[in-house]
Design a protein that fits this description.
- There is one protein chain.
- The chain has 158 residues and is of the alpha+beta class.
- The chain contains 6 helices and 4 strands; from the N terminus they run H-H-H-E-E-H-H-H-E-E.
- It has helices at 11-33, 35-61, 65-76, 102-109, 113-121, 123-131; strands at residues 82-89, 93-101, 135-138, 150-156.
- Strands 1-2-4-3 form a 4-stranded antiparallel beta sheet.
- Strand 1 and strand 2 (93-101) form a beta hairpin.
- Helix 1 (11-33) packs antiparallel against helix 2 (35-61), helix 2 runs parallel beside helix 6 (123-131) and helix 4 (102-109) runs antiparallel to helix 5.
């Protein structure tokens, strides 16, 4: 649930604000502790945050593939965060492509796509574990890595 005292902002705005704080912090960690330690700290932090987000979204929206579609279309894409093209959906799978990603555009504008992959794209698996551990995600490409789309394929585990 959202605290009534909080100002309502889009998911994209929240990620940009977080990025403006995280990026300098991550750069200092890299400079002080090295690339490997920075990656370990960032990856663990993002996994924890993403799993918490997934659990919160499951509590608010439900744990179904239809609920996950709602999260993608209304929350992630809300406010212009990304353009989502639904490919297929049933009770046991959800397939969609992201054809424009303003999260990726933000990191590319800063010249930090490699960091964007760690901070933004790598959230998805951990988010899903918090959302519904009976689902799995496969994705072969991302806009952040230079592809024309991100191909999200969610399936119920066999």
């Amino acid at each position: 649930m959202v605290d009534a005292s909080e100002v309502s902002i889009t998911h994209l705005q929240r990620r940009k604000i977080e990025g403006r704080v995280l990026i300098p912090f991550i750069q200092v960690v890299r400079d002080q502790l090295g690339q490997s330690a920075m990656r370990a700290v960032v990856d663990e932090t993002i996994r924890r945050l993403a799993a918490d987000d997934g659990a919160r979204w499951a509590a608010a929206y439900g744990k179904t593939t239809a609920s996950l579609r709602t999260v993608a279309q209304e929350l992630w894409a809300g406010g212009g965060g990304m353009d989502v093209e639904l490919v297929a959906e049933s009770d046991d799978h959800l397939d969609f492509n992201v054809t424009r990603c303003r999260y990726a555009e933000f990191y590319k504008e800063l010249g930090l796509s490699d960091l964007g992959i760690r901070v933004q794209c790598n959230r998805d698996g951990a988010m899903l574990a918090g959302f519904n551990d009976e689902l799995e995600l496969s994705r072969s490409q991302t806009i952040m890595e230079g592809a024309t789309c991100c191909d999200f394929r969610f399936r119920k585990r066999a």
